[in-house]
C-alpha cells in the first residue's frame, strides 16, 4: 500500500509542487523568523555579557529608561562613589564610567551623525578595559577636553575623518569637539553611534558637572562571586544606589532590545499565519482534485480488497510526504529568509558581521510541526472522501464526478453566516468595547467560515452576474469561460477562497488603518491651535536653550511648553490616591492645544499652584473646581494644588493628545523637578506677523539645534500619519503574500481543468477555434475566478473594517474611511493575478495537439 | 495500386467538381527500423456533392487518411487540397481558419461542449468565427435533423442519437465545403445509427452537401454513394452504390487475406 502511495505521490509531482510551495512559504516564514530572532537574541546576549562589568553601581530610580527618555532626566551618582566602593572588600578594581543615551552629535554641516534607523547615539567616557566593545584602530585616545573618538561604523557611514569637528548636544548643553581617533567594534555593533570623550570632559558634557558619574564598574577580586560582591556593595552603600551583577545587567539590556525583536517576530509570524491560512485552501483543493481524478483508481484498489481505511490512510500518507518535503524546503528557505533579514537589519546600521545564524532545536521542530500539521489537516477531508469511494467506481465510465446538490451546504452556510452577521451587528452597536470586541471576533470568525462554506453557492450566484458582460465583450469565448468557471462550483469556491481570505484580512485592516488615519487627522484639526510646534526628532526632550531660542525668535509670540513626568501621586480630599503620569504646561496651553473643559476656567490652566483634573477622576473622588489636592513627586517632594478646571474624559487609547492625566503648571515642576525637560513647545506667530515668514525665520533660528524640528499643523499631521503608513506597508506586504499563494491555487485549478477538458478543447480546435481563442478562454476563466475571490473577500473585509470602526468610534476611531483606492487596486490586481495564473495553463491548452486531444480515451 | 480518380466516370448528377484531393499522400511514424507507414503515397479525389465512405480493417490507415485530408494531421510527404486550397504546408493559423470556415466535423463521441445548449453548439463554429448564421438555412438544417424542440437542452439532457444529430447539424450549419465524419455512429445503437446515417444521406441528396465518413460498419457504408477500401496505407479498391452485403463480402476478403 505504501508503495502505491509513494508512486502516486511521484506521479502527481506537478500538482504536488504547487502545494509544496504553499507549505514551503508558511514554513519558511516560521523558521526564518525563529532563526533570525534567535540569532539577534544570542548576539545581544553575548554582547551584553561581554561588555557588562562584574558588578555595576548606578543611581536607583523608580523611573524606567523609557520614562527617563520622556523627561530628559539623566541618572547619575556622586563622583566620590568610585573611591568609596574601591575600598570595599572583594573589589579588585573600580572604574568611574560616564554613559548617556540619546544625545545628538552633528558634523560641521549641522547634519546628525547618529544612526538612521532609530538606534541611539551614546556618549561615553574613554577608559580601557577587557570589556570595552571597541578598540582604537586609527588616531589616538581622547586625552583632553575637546577631543573625541567615534566608532568606525559611524565614521564610515557619515564620512568622518580624524581632525573633523563635531558638536555634541546633550542635556547640559553643547560641546565642540575634534575627532582624534576612530575605534572599531570588536563585538557586534548593535547599530548605535558611540562618541567617547576624555573622562572629565564627558562628565561635563553629558552630566553637566565633574562631580557626577553615571556608574561605577567593579571587577570582583579572585574567589568573590558577583552575587557576593553585590551583597557587600549594596549593604555598605545604602539607599539611593542600584547594584547589578553582570547577569542582571545583561538581562535588563536584553529585555530592552527584546521588545523590538518581539515586534519583528510577531510581524513575521503574521505573515506566516496568512501563508498558513491561504495555504490550507490550496492543499485542500489539490487533494480534493487528486481524489476526484483518481476515483477509478481508488475504486479499483477497493475492488481488489483495500479497505476504506487503507485508502484513507494512503491519502493521508501522501499528505504527510508532501508535508515533509514542503517543510524541509521551507526550512532551507527559512535560512535564506533569515540571511535576508540579517542583511536588511544591517542596512539599518546594525553590524552583524561575523555573527553566524543560530539554529535552535526548536526551529526544525516548529517548522516540521507547522508544515506537517497544516498539510495533513488540509488533506483530511479529501482523504475521508476517498475512503468512501465504492469499489463500483472502478467499473463506471470515467466521467465528471456526480455533483452533489449544494442544498445542505447552503443551509449550513446561511446559518453560520447569520450567526456571524449577528455578531458583527452586535459588535457595531455594542455599548462597551470589551463586550463588542468579543462579538467582533465571533462575527469575523463566523462570517469567514460561512463564506468558505458558501463559496460554491456564491460562485454560482455571483459569477453569472460578474460575467454578464462577457458574451458581449469577448464573444463566444467569454460565454464559455464564464460557464466553465461555474461548472464545478465547489472547486471554483475553494480556489477563490484562498484569495478571498487574503483580501478579506488585508482590506479589513486597511479600513481600520485609514479610519485611524483620518480620525487622527480630525483630532489634530480640532485640537491643534498653535501655528507651530517644536519637538525633538526622536521624540526626545529638549533642553532649556531651545525654549529660550524659540522665545527669542523674531515674530514669535510667547511659546507654551509642555513636559511630562511619570509616577506622580495625587492625593484627593477623600484620602484616596492615584499614581499616574502628569503633564505640566505654561499658561496659554488651552489656546494652543484645544481640549474640552467641562468646569472652571480654561484660561487658568498652567497658572502657578493650579491643577487640572479629569472630570471622571474629580467626580470619583468628590473634588471640584476650587478644591485642593496634594501632589507627590518621585523623590518625595509634594505640593498642594488648587483645582482650576476639569477636563472632559476621553475614552480609549486611540485618542490623540495627552489622555486623562492631571495637568500642572510648569512652575511647579521647575520647583520640584528642575531637570525635567520640555517635551513639546507650541509657538504662535506674533499678532500681525506673516506665518510662513515667521516659520522660516524660526527654522533658521533653530539651525544650531538639529535635534529638533519645527512643524505646522500639516507637518504635524504628516508625522502622525507617517507612523500609520508603516502599518499600511505591512498590510501591502501581507496582501502580496496572500496573492502569491492564491496564484498558485488558481494555477493548480486551471491546470487540472485543462487536463480534464482535453477532449473539449481538442474539439473546439478541430471545429475552428484558434490557439488565441483557446488561450483567451482559459485566461478569462482565470480572471473570473480571481476577481470573484477578491470581490467576496472585499465584501467580508470591508464589513469587518466597518464593524471595527463602529465598535471603536467611542474610543477615538471616530471617522470611517474606506480606502477606495485600495479597493479598486485590489480588484484590478486580482484580475492581473488571474491573468498571470492562466499563463501556463492557457499555453498548455492552446498547444494541445488536436488529434491527440480528440483521440485520447 | 488502384487509383481512385474515377468519380467522373460514374458522376453523381449533383456533384460538380472536386471537394478534396490528395496526391501521393504519405504519412509515416518513426524513423529507420521503427518506421511505420500509415499512408503510402495515396492519391484520392473526393467528388463534390457525394457521400463517400472510407472503409478498411483496423490499422489500415483510414482514420489517418481522413485526418490528413481534413488538415488535422500533418503529412510526411505528398500534397492535399480542400477545394482549390492546398492545405499541405499551411500554418496552424490558416489551417484553423480553413477548418472553421470550410470543413465540418462529426466525431464518434464527445462532439458537443457540455456547457452549451444544443443551439449554441450548432452555431459554435460561426460564433467562433464571429459570423452571423444564415437564419433560413439554420432553420432548414434544424428541421431536417428534427431537433426544433430540443434546442435549449444541454448535451447531458439529450440521448446519444440526439447528440450526434446536433453534431451533424453543427457540421452542416456553416455550409462547409466538406464534412468529415469519424465513425459518427460508432457509439450509437442500430436504430439511432440508422437515423443519423439517413440524415447524412439526405443532406447529401437534398442539400448537396459533400461528406466523407470513416467507418468499419458495412451497414453504415451502404448509405454512401461510394466506398473506398483501404489496406496497409493504400487504397486497394472502391465500390459505387454499395449495398451492405457487397461491402461485407469485400471486407471478408481482407480478413481472408490477413489470416492466410
UniProtKB/TrEMBL annotation, chain A:
It is found in: Cell membrane. Keywords: Cell membrane, Membrane, Transmembrane, Transmembrane helix. Residues 271-391, 734-850 form the ABC3 transporter permease C-terminal domain. It is a multi-pass membrane protein. One of its GO terms (molecular function) is transmembrane transporter activity. One of its GO terms (cellular component) is plasma membrane. It comes from the Bacteria. It holds the Pfam family MacB_PCD. Residues 17-233, 492-700 form the MacB-like periplasmic core domain. The chain crosses the membrane at residues 266-292, 319-345, 365-383, 411-431, 437-459, 492-513, 726-755, 780-800, 820-840. Belongs to the ABC-4 integral membrane protein family. PANTHER family: ABC TRANSPORTER PERMEASE YTRF, MEMBRANE COMPONENT OF TRANSPORTER-RELATED. This is ABC transporter permease.
Automatic annotation (TrEMBL), chain B:
Transmembrane segments: none annotated. It comes from the Bacteria. Gene3D superfamilies: P-loop containing nucleotide triphosphate hydrolases. Residues 20-257 form the ABC transporter domain. PANTHER family: ABC TRANSPORTER RELATED, IMPORT ATP-BINDING PROTEIN. This is ABC transporter ATP-binding protein. It comes from Yinghuangia soli. GO terms for cellular component: membrane protein complex; plasma membrane. The keyword Lyase does not apply. Keywords: ATP-binding, Nucleotide-binding, Transport. GO terms for molecular function: ATP binding; ATP hydrolysis activity; transmembrane transporter activity. PROSITE patterns: ABC_TRANSPORTER_2.
